[in-house]
Protein backbone atom coordinates (compact mmCIF):
# COMPACT_ATOMS: atom_id res chain seq x y z
CA UNK A 1 0.00 0.00 0.00
CA UNK A 2 2.79 2.43 0.90
CA UNK A 3 4.41 1.85 -2.50
CA UNK A 4 1.13 2.85 -4.18
CA UNK A 5 0.97 6.00 -2.04
CA UNK A 6 4.56 6.94 -2.93
CA UNK A 7 3.87 6.29 -6.62
CA UNK A 8 0.83 8.58 -6.48
CA UNK A 9 2.82 11.33 -4.77
CA UNK A 10 5.52 10.94 -7.44
CA UNK A 11 2.97 11.34 -10.24
CA UNK A 12 1.37 14.37 -8.60
CA UNK A 13 4.68 16.20 -8.13
CA UNK A 14 4.80 16.85 -11.89
CA UNK A 15 1.71 19.08 -11.60
CA UNK A 16 2.10 22.84 -11.17
CA UNK A 17 1.57 23.92 -7.59
CA UNK A 18 -1.54 25.88 -8.58
CA UNK A 19 -3.21 22.55 -9.41
CA UNK A 20 -1.49 20.36 -6.82
CA UNK A 21 -2.44 22.67 -3.92
CA UNK A 22 -6.24 22.38 -4.29
CA UNK A 23 -5.93 18.61 -4.77
CA UNK A 24 -3.99 18.42 -1.51
CA UNK A 25 -6.50 20.64 0.29
CA UNK A 26 -9.36 18.43 -0.87
CA UNK A 27 -7.48 15.36 0.27
CA UNK A 28 -6.97 16.92 3.69
CA UNK A 29 -10.63 17.83 4.04
CA UNK A 30 -11.45 14.19 3.30
CA UNK A 31 -9.03 13.10 6.04
CA UNK A 32 -10.93 15.29 8.52
CA UNK A 33 -13.93 12.99 8.16
CA UNK A 34 -12.02 9.71 7.74
CA UNK A 35 -9.35 9.81 10.47
CA UNK A 36 -11.65 10.22 13.45
CA UNK A 37 -9.07 9.61 16.24
CA UNK A 38 -6.77 12.37 14.93
CA UNK A 39 -9.71 14.71 14.42
CA UNK A 40 -10.55 14.23 18.09
CA UNK A 41 -6.95 15.02 19.08
CA UNK A 42 -6.99 18.21 17.00
CA UNK A 43 -10.29 19.37 18.48
CA UNK A 44 -9.08 18.71 22.05
CA UNK A 45 -5.88 20.66 21.39
CA UNK A 46 -7.81 23.57 19.92
CA UNK A 47 -10.26 23.58 22.84
CA UNK A 48 -7.38 23.81 25.29
CA UNK A 49 -5.40 26.41 23.38
CA UNK A 50 -8.22 28.59 22.04
CA UNK A 51 -10.94 28.59 24.70
CA UNK A 52 -12.04 32.02 23.47
CA UNK A 53 -13.30 30.49 20.21
CA UNK A 54 -16.75 28.97 19.87
CA UNK A 55 -17.13 25.27 19.11
CA UNK A 56 -18.09 26.11 15.53
CA UNK A 57 -15.03 28.32 15.12
CA UNK A 58 -12.75 25.57 16.44
CA UNK A 59 -14.26 23.03 14.05
CA UNK A 60 -13.74 25.42 11.15
CA UNK A 61 -10.12 25.89 12.24
CA UNK A 62 -9.68 22.11 12.47
CA UNK A 63 -10.95 21.71 8.90
CA UNK A 64 -8.47 24.33 7.69
CA UNK A 65 -5.74 22.48 9.57
CA UNK A 66 -6.56 19.21 7.83
CA UNK A 67 -6.65 21.02 4.48
CA UNK A 68 -3.11 22.39 4.84
CA UNK A 69 -1.94 19.07 6.29
CA UNK A 70 -3.28 17.30 3.21
CA UNK A 71 -1.43 19.79 1.05
CA UNK A 72 1.82 19.18 2.91
CA UNK A 73 1.49 15.42 2.46
CA UNK A 74 1.04 15.56 -1.31
CA UNK A 75 3.45 18.45 -1.85
CA UNK A 76 6.14 16.44 -0.08
CA UNK A 77 6.77 14.95 -3.50
CA UNK A 78 8.45 18.23 -4.43
CA UNK A 79 10.90 17.79 -1.56
CA UNK A 80 11.58 14.23 -2.68
CA UNK A 81 11.91 14.65 -6.44
CA UNK A 82 11.68 18.25 -7.68
CA UNK A 83 14.76 19.86 -9.16
CA UNK A 84 16.82 22.34 -7.17
CA UNK A 85 15.58 25.10 -9.48
CA UNK A 86 11.94 24.26 -8.82
CA UNK A 87 12.50 24.06 -5.07
CA UNK A 88 14.15 27.48 -5.06
CA UNK A 89 11.17 28.87 -6.95
CA UNK A 90 8.68 27.15 -4.61
CA UNK A 91 10.26 28.08 -1.26
CA UNK A 92 11.53 31.63 -0.79
CA UNK A 93 13.96 32.23 2.07
CA UNK A 94 13.79 35.52 3.94
CA UNK A 95 16.58 36.40 6.36
CA UNK A 96 19.25 34.11 4.96
CA UNK A 97 21.76 36.85 5.71
CA UNK A 98 21.42 36.09 9.45
CA UNK A 99 22.61 32.54 8.92
CA UNK A 100 25.35 33.55 6.50
CA UNK A 101 26.75 36.19 8.87
CA UNK A 102 26.93 33.76 11.78
CA UNK A 103 28.62 31.09 9.66
CA UNK A 104 31.11 33.63 8.30
CA UNK A 105 31.97 34.60 11.87
CA UNK A 106 32.56 30.96 12.77
CA UNK A 107 29.68 30.88 15.24
CA UNK A 108 27.81 27.58 15.72
CA UNK A 109 24.12 27.93 14.81
CA UNK A 110 21.00 26.28 16.19
CA UNK A 111 17.94 26.74 13.98
CA UNK A 112 14.76 26.65 16.07
CA UNK A 113 12.31 24.98 13.66
CA UNK A 114 8.88 24.25 15.21
CA UNK A 115 6.43 21.75 13.77
CA UNK A 116 4.52 23.68 11.14
CA UNK A 117 3.09 21.77 8.19
CA UNK A 118 5.78 22.97 5.76
CA UNK A 119 8.61 21.70 7.95
CA UNK A 120 9.96 19.02 5.59
CA UNK A 121 9.70 21.27 2.55
CA UNK A 122 11.65 23.95 4.38
CA UNK A 123 14.31 21.49 5.49
CA UNK A 124 14.91 20.26 1.96
CA UNK A 125 15.01 23.81 0.60
CA UNK A 126 17.44 24.88 3.30
CA UNK A 127 19.75 21.97 2.44
CA UNK A 128 20.40 23.66 -0.91
CA UNK A 129 22.25 26.38 1.02
CA UNK A 130 24.93 24.13 2.53
CA UNK A 131 25.63 21.30 4.94
CA UNK A 132 23.40 20.93 7.99
CA UNK A 133 22.80 18.45 10.79
CA UNK A 134 19.43 17.24 12.02
CA UNK A 135 18.03 14.48 14.18
CA UNK A 136 16.12 11.86 12.21
CA UNK A 137 13.66 9.39 13.71
CA UNK A 138 13.27 6.27 11.52
CA UNK A 139 9.70 5.49 10.47
CA UNK A 140 8.05 2.11 11.02
CA UNK A 141 7.07 1.92 7.35
CA UNK A 142 10.33 1.20 5.51
CA UNK A 143 9.11 2.58 2.19
CA UNK A 144 8.04 5.92 3.66
CA UNK A 145 11.20 5.96 5.78
CA UNK A 146 13.37 5.59 2.68
CA UNK A 147 11.82 8.59 0.93
CA UNK A 148 11.70 10.80 4.00
CA UNK A 149 15.39 10.12 4.53
CA UNK A 150 16.04 10.77 0.83
CA UNK A 151 14.21 14.10 0.94
CA UNK A 152 16.31 15.33 3.85
CA UNK A 153 19.66 14.22 2.43
CA UNK A 154 19.50 14.56 -1.36
CA UNK A 155 21.39 17.88 -1.62
CA UNK A 156 24.93 18.63 -0.45
CA UNK A 157 26.35 16.67 2.51
CA UNK A 158 23.64 16.49 5.14
CA UNK A 159 24.29 14.71 8.44
CA UNK A 160 21.29 12.88 9.91
CA UNK A 161 21.74 11.74 13.48
CA UNK A 162 19.49 9.41 15.46
CA UNK A 163 18.40 10.23 19.00
CA UNK A 164 20.69 7.42 20.13
CA UNK A 165 23.74 9.34 18.84
CA UNK A 166 23.39 11.63 21.83
CA UNK A 167 24.20 15.23 22.65
CA UNK A 168 27.94 14.91 22.07
CA UNK A 169 27.55 14.07 18.37
CA UNK A 170 25.11 16.94 17.88
CA UNK A 171 27.36 19.49 19.58
CA UNK A 172 30.38 18.21 17.62
CA UNK A 173 28.50 18.68 14.34
CA UNK A 174 27.51 22.24 15.24
CA UNK A 175 31.04 23.14 16.28
CA UNK A 176 32.32 21.77 12.96
CA UNK A 177 30.23 24.39 11.13
CA UNK A 178 26.96 22.55 10.51
CA UNK A 179 23.86 24.47 11.64
CA UNK A 180 21.45 22.23 13.55
CA UNK A 181 17.89 22.04 12.22
CA UNK A 182 16.23 21.48 15.60
CA UNK A 183 12.62 20.52 16.42
CA UNK A 184 12.09 20.71 20.21
CA UNK A 185 8.35 21.36 20.49
CA UNK A 186 6.73 17.91 20.75
CA UNK A 187 5.82 15.90 23.83
CA UNK A 188 8.74 13.48 24.20
CA UNK A 189 7.61 12.15 27.56
CA UNK A 190 8.63 12.92 31.12
CA UNK A 191 12.35 12.16 30.74
CA UNK A 192 14.46 15.30 30.21
CA UNK A 193 11.29 17.44 30.15
CA UNK A 194 9.95 20.10 32.44
CA UNK A 195 6.43 21.49 32.64
CA UNK A 196 6.06 25.03 31.31
CA UNK A 197 3.02 26.80 29.87
CA UNK A 198 2.00 26.52 26.24
CA UNK A 199 -1.19 28.45 25.51
CA UNK A 200 -1.72 28.54 29.27
CA UNK A 201 -1.59 24.75 29.62
CA UNK A 202 1.26 23.00 31.42
CA UNK A 203 3.14 21.11 28.68
CA UNK A 204 6.01 18.65 29.05
CA UNK A 205 8.79 20.41 27.15
CA UNK A 206 12.35 19.23 26.59
CA UNK A 207 15.09 21.62 27.67
CA UNK A 208 17.36 20.78 24.75
CA UNK A 209 17.31 24.24 23.17
CA UNK A 210 19.08 26.15 25.96
CA UNK A 211 21.26 23.17 26.90
CA UNK A 212 22.54 22.56 23.35
CA UNK A 213 23.00 26.28 22.75
CA UNK A 214 25.14 26.53 25.88
CA UNK A 215 27.21 23.40 25.18
CA UNK A 216 27.96 24.42 21.59
CA UNK A 217 28.18 28.16 22.21
CA UNK A 218 25.55 28.42 19.48
CA UNK A 219 23.37 31.30 18.39
CA UNK A 220 19.66 30.45 18.32
CA UNK A 221 18.04 31.52 15.04
CA UNK A 222 14.23 31.22 14.75
CA UNK A 223 13.26 29.27 11.63
CA UNK A 224 9.58 29.41 10.63
CA UNK A 225 7.99 28.16 7.41
CA UNK A 226 4.69 29.52 6.14
CA UNK A 227 2.55 27.79 3.51
CA UNK A 228 1.11 30.39 1.15
CA UNK A 229 -2.29 30.11 -0.57
CA UNK A 230 -2.71 28.15 -3.77
CA UNK A 231 0.26 28.18 -6.08
CA UNK A 232 2.23 30.85 -4.17
CA UNK A 233 4.46 28.26 -2.51
CA UNK A 234 6.19 28.74 0.84
CA UNK A 235 8.21 31.32 2.71
CA UNK A 236 10.96 30.25 5.09
CA UNK A 237 11.68 33.01 7.59
CA UNK A 238 15.04 33.08 9.35
CA UNK A 239 14.98 35.65 12.14
CA UNK A 240 17.74 37.52 13.89
CA UNK A 241 19.59 35.45 16.52
CA UNK A 242 18.10 35.66 19.98
CA UNK A 243 19.77 38.07 22.36
CA UNK A 244 20.81 36.98 25.87
CA UNK A 245 20.06 33.34 25.17
CA UNK A 246 20.65 31.03 26.86
CA UNK A 247 20.56 32.54 30.34
CA UNK A 248 21.50 30.89 33.61
CA UNK A 249 17.90 29.74 34.10
CA UNK A 250 16.95 26.69 32.01
CA UNK A 251 13.28 26.89 32.99
CA UNK A 252 13.06 30.57 32.02
CA UNK A 253 14.75 29.80 28.71
CA UNK A 254 12.29 26.98 28.00
CA UNK A 255 9.38 29.24 28.91
CA UNK A 256 10.75 31.83 26.50
CA UNK A 257 10.80 29.26 23.71
CA UNK A 258 7.18 28.26 24.30
CA UNK A 259 6.01 31.86 24.60
CA UNK A 260 7.74 32.74 21.32
CA UNK A 261 6.21 29.69 19.62
CA UNK A 262 2.74 30.55 20.89
CA UNK A 263 3.08 34.01 19.35
CA UNK A 264 4.03 32.55 15.98
CA UNK A 265 1.25 29.95 16.08
CA UNK A 266 -1.32 32.71 16.60
CA UNK A 267 -0.28 34.26 13.27
CA UNK A 268 -1.20 31.05 11.38
CA UNK A 269 -3.04 28.71 13.78
CA UNK A 270 -4.19 26.31 11.08
CA UNK A 271 -0.58 25.45 10.14
CA UNK A 272 0.68 24.15 13.49
CA UNK A 273 0.96 20.40 14.08
CA UNK A 274 -2.26 19.95 16.06
CA UNK A 275 -2.57 16.24 15.21
CA UNK A 276 0.16 15.61 17.79
CA UNK A 277 -0.94 14.86 21.36
CA UNK A 278 1.00 17.81 22.73
CA UNK A 279 -0.41 17.51 26.25
CA UNK A 280 -0.20 13.72 26.59
CA UNK A 281 2.28 13.79 29.51
CA UNK A 282 0.66 15.36 32.56
CA UNK A 283 2.01 16.64 35.88
CA UNK A 284 1.65 14.20 38.76
CA UNK A 285 -1.96 13.92 39.88
CA UNK A 286 -3.53 15.43 36.76
CA UNK A 287 -5.98 13.31 34.72
CA UNK A 288 -5.27 12.21 31.16
CA UNK A 289 -6.40 14.62 28.47
CA UNK A 290 -6.74 12.33 25.44
Biggest sheet features: 7 strands, mixed
Decide which structural class fits the backbone.
alpha/beta
> Spans of 5+ residues with little confidence (pLDDT < 50)?
none
Order of helices and strands: HHHHHEHEHEHEHEEEHEEH
Strand order within the widest beta sheet: 1-9-8-2-5-3-4
Number of strands: 9
Query: Hey, roughly how much beta strand do the residues contain?
Result: 5-15%
Q: Termini separation (Å)?
A: 29 Å
> If you compute it from the alpha carbons, what radius of gyration comes out, rounded to the nearest whole angstrom?
19 Å
Oligomerization category of the chains in this entry: single chain
Tally of separate helices: 11
Principal-axis shape? globular
On the 0 to 100 scale, the average pLDDT is: 95
Helix content: 40-55%
Amino acid sequence: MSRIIVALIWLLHFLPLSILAPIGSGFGRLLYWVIVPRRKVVLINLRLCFPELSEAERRALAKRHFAVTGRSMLERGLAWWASAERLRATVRIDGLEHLQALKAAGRPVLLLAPHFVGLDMAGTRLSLEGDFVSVYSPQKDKVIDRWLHHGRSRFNDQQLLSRHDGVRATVKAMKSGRPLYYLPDLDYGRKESIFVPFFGVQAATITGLPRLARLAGAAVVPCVVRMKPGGEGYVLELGAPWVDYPSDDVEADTRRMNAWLEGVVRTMPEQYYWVHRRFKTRPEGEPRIY
